[in-house]
Amino acid sequence: MKWMVPKVRKAVFPAAGLGTRFLPATKAQPKEMLPLVDKPLIQYGVEESVHSGISNIIIVTGRGKSAIEDHFDVNFELEHLLETRGKRELLTNVRNISEMIDVSYVRQKEALGLGHAVLRAKEIVGHEPFAVVLSDDVIDSETPCLRQLLDIYEFFGASVLALMEVNGPEISSYGVVDADPVSHSSAGGRLYRIHNLVEKPKASEAPSNLAIIGRYVLTPEIFTSIEAIQPGSGGEIQLTDALRHLLRNRPLYGFKFEGSRFDAGDKLGFLKATVEFALRRHDLGKDFREYLKTLKL
Ligand code: UTP
Questions:
Q1: What are the distances in angstroms from CA 189 to CA 125, 179, 210, 247?
Q2: Rounded to the nearest whole angstrom, what is the distance from the C-alpha of residue 278 to the centroid of ligand 1?
Q3: Could you identify which of 98, 157, 257, 273 might form a hypothetical disulfide with 262, taking C-beta atoms 3.0 to 4.6 angstroms apart as the criterion?
Q4: What is the pLDDT along the chain (297 residues), one digit of tens a residue?
Q5: Which of 29, 112, 136 has most ligand 1 atoms within 8 Å of its beta carbon, as the pocket-test mutant?
Q6: Which of 12, 13, 18 to mutate to test the pocket of ligand 1 (most atoms within 8 A of CB)?
Q7: What CATH class is the domain 10-288?
Q8: Distance CA 191, CA 162 (A)
Q9: Structural domain spans, the chain
């Protein structure tokens, strides 16, 4: 009988970073609450998670905790007002998200790194596989990116990272993998077995052009690895370093996901995402396109 791979039921959303690239907007609110058209970044990630079959959401918060909590909470006053004014569509919209998920919060008091943020969720996750979603990476794809990773996880029962090709000097802003392609029937040449990972290497020293982006499916042994490592690049407890530690006794896969990814934690990336998402909206796209055409570029 084939070994039953434990199901991934929980997704951790680290949202406690300082967001220095987006100051001053992130002085008093986390960047995850910045709106892309009319939804905060974190809601795109939460919807991706729900559409991938995971509705148990754990948010790691730092500053601006109340803005995130309020967003996913029921707002009776607002709902009552929308109801009495007959704004049915807005009401459904506002209600949907809090009804779709079961959310819990854990605090990261100091921004000591992504690995440290993930470790804060250890108690709530328990000894189960889980997903990690960095919601400042907004992904537009036919099949949700997280679902693509879960399909690989469900076959191999091992941790899987989302990968993206990055060419040129920009590679040094990412965690980069040293990996070999693996042939797998439904992966269409997108699957890799990872042998090593380096956080933010110099472009000349990058082991490949395959960068890690903000979607992970991890087995619970990662917690022991995070506890075992020392602060690395930037003095932070890096998830990449913990993954390298995990590799000592666990296999690790990378999947070059299908879709487009926007780094909405960066001003230019955020602007690009705003334009593309607005153009695709059925209620805004046409007028917005007409407006853009009038600009003398
Ligand atoms: P980033 O690397 O984008 O860092 O974090 P940052 O501090 O948020 O932003 P910049 O670079 O200063 O502009 C990647 C993800 O990890 C979370 C962030 O919230 C983001 O989702 N994170 C990072 C934490 O939750 N805690 C940390 O200590 C660091």
A1: 32, 13, 14, 22
A2: 25
A3: 273
A4: 566 899 999 999 999 999 999 999 998 889 999 999 999 999 999 999 999 999 999 999 987 788 999 898 878 888 888 888 888 888 888 777 778 899 999 999 999 999 999 999 999 999 999 999 999 999 999 999 999 999 999 999 999 999 999 999 999 999 999 999 998 777 788 999 999 999 999 999 999 999 999 999 999 999 999 999 999 878 899 999 999 999 999 999 999 999 999 999 999 999 999 999 999 999 999 999 999 999 988
A5: 136
A6: 18
A7: alpha beta
A8: 10
A9: 10-288
